[in-house]
Amino acid sequence: MKNLMTEAIKKIFLALIVAALISCSSSTGEDASPTSMAMGHNDSHDSHDSHDSHDSHDSHDSHDHGNNLDVSQLVDPPTVSISGRAIETGEVNLNFAVENLELIPINPPSEHESGQGHLHLYVDGVSVAMLHEASYVVTDLTKGLHDFRVTVSTNDHREYYVDGKVISDSISIEIEEGEEAPEVDKGIIVEVKNGTVVDGLQRLTVDVGEQISITLLSDEDDVFHLHAYNLEVSLTADQPEILQFQADIPGVFEGELHEAGYQILALEVS
Hints:
The chain is globular and about 50 Å long. Helices cover 23% and strands 44% of the residues. It has one helix spanning 2-62; strands at 69-70, 79-88, 91-99, 102-103, 116-123, 126-131, 135-138, 144-153, 160-162, 165-166, 168-175, 186-193, 196-197, 202-206, 211-218, 222-226, 231-235, 241-246, 251-257, 262-269. The protein folds into 3 domains: 1-63; 69-175, Immunoglobulins (Immunoglobulin-like), CATH 2.60.40; 186-269, Cupredoxins -  blue copper proteins (Immunoglobulin-like). It is α+β, with helices and mostly antiparallel strands and 270 residues long. Strands 4, 5, 6, 8 and 11 form a 5-stranded mixed sheet that branches. Strands 14-20-19-16-17 form a 5-stranded mixed sheet, with no helix packed on it.
């Protein structure tokens, strides 16, 4: 009888131990749940940071530094005029008269400030210099007539506009003493009208080392840029510009209009 009671007590004791273990296990499971929620919160936080970063990136990309600055509302907007003369064989001395604008060096780069900026100089339509001084000597000019154009730019390289026109001035100077212009091996005419390239996207295929000529004509003011060669031509509406250079970089390169934002020429050099 005593043995039976002892066995019964053991069974009861074991049952109590098992119940206690089950209770502990259940309690441990509840402690794990907040940990999982905390991990979920971290994931959500990471996703939120990523979203903020994405929004910031989109905002940065949408900011167009290439937009020109219209100052038509100013009583005294910036003005510029250009004068010059041939001084040596193949050289021209240019002088610029600037009003209502403080000329600022382009280095170090600076943000836009009203009433400040610099000058962009184009020779035969090609961008050759950014200036913060009132004079400049152009060298290595070939014999013949050359066009010089200066525009007024903001510190962040946007052109100042008044009444839809770039603030600029131009002059033509005859070079009587200088090297003869090299003969052109191949050339092409690219005309843009009503927002499209006449006869479709133009393609020019040349050999390395050839002298090429690209005649550009647009019915709107714009800037033509040829990639890799880093050549830019300022275009005035309905006025042809001729870009002449040696094709010394092999490859296929896009020529595009900056303001219009599309390709008008493919240059293949092989």
